[in-house]
Amino acid sequence: MERQQTLASSSSSSSSSSPAEDAWVDSYLKLLPQWQSLTSSNQPVIPIAISRVNQVDAGRLDIEMSAMLKEQMVKVFSLMKPGMLFQYEPELDAFLQFLIWRFSIWVDKPTPGNGLMNLRYRDERAIEARGKVRTGLEGPGLAVSQKIWYCVATVGGQYLWARLQSFSAFRRWGDSDQRSLVRRGWFLLQRVEGLYRAASFVNVLVFLYSGRYRCLIERLLRARLVYGSPNMNRAVSFEYMNRQLVWNEFSEMLLLLLPLLNSSSMKSFLRPFSKDKSSSSAGDENLCPICQANPSIPFLALPCQHRYCYYCLRTRCSAAPSFRCSRCNEPVVAMQRHGVPVDNLAQKQ
């Protein structure tokens, strides 16, 4: 009995001193943030390099997408008054740009070109505030203010500049007979455009060196393009480009060789291989087989006596001494005017 009492007392004391079942889980959850902060603080900042070709291709694809949408929109108004859509072209471009911005950047989705190139916009200011990253691709998307300023710069800025240029050109602000105030406005526009082009050129050089911010708007807003998924390859098919290059080279070769080929010689060379050898003689015998017209000065090719125009037959005989008749493929040894006796032959030179 005493031994049982001692065992019961020891078991009760051990059960009272043992921790609860959820104590280990609670301790783990409390210490997990501290452990993550310590491990992340020991990791250096991983430099990432976004392909410059991907970024440039994404911008080009966005332009092509806008052009395709514009083409479809123009087809809608094709039956209306001609020239009516031309005067509202800046508004149409701004509307299409707004649609692309509204359904891509505003809802934290990539543009069509960025989506094809596996790219997305990242707020670089938030990354600098965090200091340390794990893979280099983390980071929040653009803030609301960045999205609004992006729309104002890309949609509103381009629309206002296009309208201002067309208005100044229509009013002829650059003419010498205009008022001094108008000419000053014209020179101011020219200087602003020159400064913008120079700044864009410098930005392109910096972009080629560092790989960040392909345009001035992205640099001013600190909106950087990064990969949306670290495991996605650049899925771009060069099949269309290869076909285009092959066709361009083939067309250039044809343009070089076609002037050097003699059509009559080629026809006479390919005629023996033709399936229908009587097709040339099945035509109208009164028409010239070269120009397919009624001969104004009819001549006969000897010895086959088929009718030709004088100039057609004379030029072919002069160009090719071994000229053969286009109808029967017989060698032409002489030419005779139609209706003249056989004694008055004009020998082929």
UniProtKB/TrEMBL annotation:
Assigned keywords, A-Z: Membrane, Metal-binding, Peroxisome, Protein transport, Transferase, Transmembrane, Transmembrane helix, Transport, Ubl conjugation pathway, Zinc, Zinc-finger
Pathway, per record: Protein modification; protein ubiquitination
GO CC aspect terms: peroxisomal membrane
Localization: Peroxisome membrane
Annotated Low complexity bias: 9-18
One of the protein's GO biological processes: protein import into peroxisome matrix
Catalytic activity: [E2 ubiquitin-conjugating enzyme]-S-ubiquitinyl-L-cysteine + [acceptor protein]-L-cysteine = [E2 ubiquitin-conjugating enzyme]-L-cysteine + [acceptor protein]-S-ubiquitinyl-L-cysteine
Major site of localization recorded for this protein: membrane
Residues covered by the RING-type domain: 288-329
Superkingdom of origin: Eukaryota
Membrane topology of this protein: Multi-pass membrane protein
SUPFAM superfamilies: RING/U-box (SSF57850)
UniProt protein name: RING-type E3 ubiquitin transferase (cysteine targeting)
Species annotation: Coffea canephora (Robusta coffee)
